[in-house]
Design brief:
46% of the residues lie in helices and 9% in strands. By secondary structure, it is mainly alpha-helical.
Length: 534
């Protein structure tokens, strides 16, 4: 018993050691988290699959074949988050009527393997929309960056106000500009789904909806170590079944569905006789064979299972139009910025999304990005923002460069360094300053120099490559001109342009990123100083 309790304690400790740094990496708004923790992102299964990380995939396969689905209880942040939700819920249950109780239910194989197949085939043809909506890591990332992170920042600002009143300026105010209506709605729906499924049926999401859970279940059936029930000592008290949040233990027939067991080890700690054991598999009983040896057989569900299937399917189907509809509402404001140019129609200033340097092309980025929004949280200039439906459903919640009040720092490669999917490939600073993500286009009819005959030149002053420069216009006035061979599309010119609502200089995205020549450095003239330099 003590050894089994230690096994559960070890699982909890490992989960904390992975979950807490990963969560802090999303919450960190001051860049103090060591970059070494970024490696935890690469342990996630979907990013590893998309990035083609063979070593990580082999490690995960060996892990599940040896120990079962420990990934779901230790490595997956969404799984750990569901455990936290369940633990919080159980605190209230204990005060009322004892600990929470589960019961064995038949698996919804039709639903989970249908969703797995749909996710796999759609991703194979370059459509990641379903994977984006169901991937547990990406959903956790959206929850952390759009719900948890603002709470931390607001708490920091409140504390900073209090310290300032005491003449203590150790903390500073932080402005958060990366949250959009679309990303906020998506995060709220994801959290509501996790809470709802956890309170309703424990790990139902992991065992019926999650494509990662369905994929791991195909291998966990053959895991070497697994939960076993000792018939000789079992008293059929049912404690193990009631504690199984995966609803995988049938205490009547003494069988464990290894495809659904997430190796949380709760059953080990509640068995009074030590009949529940986590040991190398021995000869299975006939009852176990009916559960384990037919991985793809569709079990005929009873009335309750049919109700669960319908309710679960309805939840998924209902969430899609809600996300789309609310995203359109949020994006209407963004699209409204393009109106008022004298045409009365939707602006085509940003007809294509401007994807970060290192993405290579819009098509490649769209096919690999799952919208986890890690790059959004790590961008120091907050120029990356999650998209709504302005670029289509396939680009929903994926980040793009929005030069509303900021621009891409000239030598910054933060997003390329941390993308777990390698949708943004790592690039050097030298490569960054020569990567052209778009080209600035100047609209003379909008410029204040032309309309009001006033000096400006803000765009040229903020161009790091001098692609935007001033040329003679009228009298002493000068007007901007763009050299596309020098422009890298950083957005410095667009973000500073004072014209509203349609700016006089706008970055048009390159479908495929180009390489431009590095701008020549200005010669520094040596000045001879006489006497004291006066």
């Amino acid at each position: 018993m003590k050894n089994f309790s230690l096994l559960k304690g070890l699982r909890v400790i490992l989960a904390i050691l992975i979950f807490v740094p990963l969560l802090l990496f999303f919450l960190d708004f001051s860049g103090i988290m060591p970059s070494v923790f970024h490696g935890l992102m690469h342990l996630q299964l979907v990013p590893a699959l998309l990035a083609g990380m063979t070593g990580i995939l082999i490690f995960q396969l060996v892990l599940v074949l040896l120990f079962g689905r420990v990934y779901c209880s230790v490595i997956c942040p969404a799984g750990v988050l569901q455990d936290i939700i369940n633990r919080i819920y159980c605190i209230g249950k204990k005060k009322k009527k004892g600990t929470r109780r589960f019961r064995f239910r038949k698996p919804l194989n039709l639903l989970r393997y249908a969703l797995l197949a749909a996710t796999f085939f759609s991703a194979a043809f370059g459509y990641l929309s379903l994977c984006l909506l169901l991937d547990p890591y990406s959903n956790f990332g959206r929850i952390a960056s759009n719900l948890f992170r603002p709470v931390v920042i607001w708490g920091n600002n409140l504390l900073a106000d209090g310290l300032m009143r005491m003449d203590n300026y150790s903390l500073y105010h932080v402005t958060l500009k990366t949250i959009t209506v679309s990303s906020l709605v998506a995060a709220c729906i994801a959290l509501a789904v996790f809470i709802g499924f956890t309170l309703w049926r424990g790990r139902l999401f992991c065992n019926s909806i999650c494509p990662v859970g369905a994929l791991l279940s195909l291998f966990s059936r053959f895991s070497w170590y697994r939960i076993n029930l000792d018939e000789s000592t079992c008293t059929h008290c049912g404690n193990c079944e009631r504690s199984c949040k995966a609803e995988a233990i049938d205490s009547k027939s003494l069988t464990v569905d290894a495809s659904r067991c997430v190796e949380c080890f709760n059953c080990l700690s509640v068995c009074p006789k030590g009949s529940v054991q986590y040991l190398p598999r021995n000869k299975r009983t006939k009852a176990e064979e009916t559960v384990v040896e037919k991985p793809l057989q569709l079990v005929k569900a009873d009335q309750n299972s049919r109700r669960t299937f319908l309710a679960t399917g309805a939840t998924i189907a209902a969430s899609l139009p809600v996300v789309s509809a609310l995203a359109e509402v949020g994006d209407g404001h963004a699209k409204g910025h393009g109106k008022g140019h004298g045409h009365g129609k939707k602006s085509l200033d940003h007809a294509l999304p401007i994807v970060p340097p290192g993405a290579g092309s819009i098509v490649r980025f769209t096919e690999l990005c799952t919208g986890c929004q890690l790059c959004v949280t790590r961008c120091p200039s907050q120029v990356l923002r999650p998209a709504g439906l302005e670029y289509g459903f396939d680009y929903l919640l994926k980040p793009h460069m929005a030069y509303i009040s900021s621009y891409c720092n000239y030598e910054c490669t933060a997003c390329a360094e941390i993308c777990p999917n390698q949708a943004i490939l790592p690039i050097t600073k030298e490569e960054k300053i020569t990567t052209q993500v778009g080209v600035a286009h100047f609209y003379k009819g909008r410029c204040v120099v032309n309309l009001e005959e006033q000096d400006c030149g803000a765009c040229a002053e903020h161009c790091p490559t001098q692609a935007v420069h001033m040329i003679p216009f009228k009298g002493t006035l000068t007007i901007p001109s763009v050299d596309p061979d020098l422009c890298i599309g950083c957005g410095g010119c667009e973000s500073i342009c004072p014209v509203r609502p349609g700016r006089a200089i706008v970055i048009h995205a390159n479908k495929v990123h180009q390489v431009v020549e590095k701008p020549e450095e200005e010669e520094v003239k040596e000045i001879e100083i006489d006497d004291f330099g006066f």
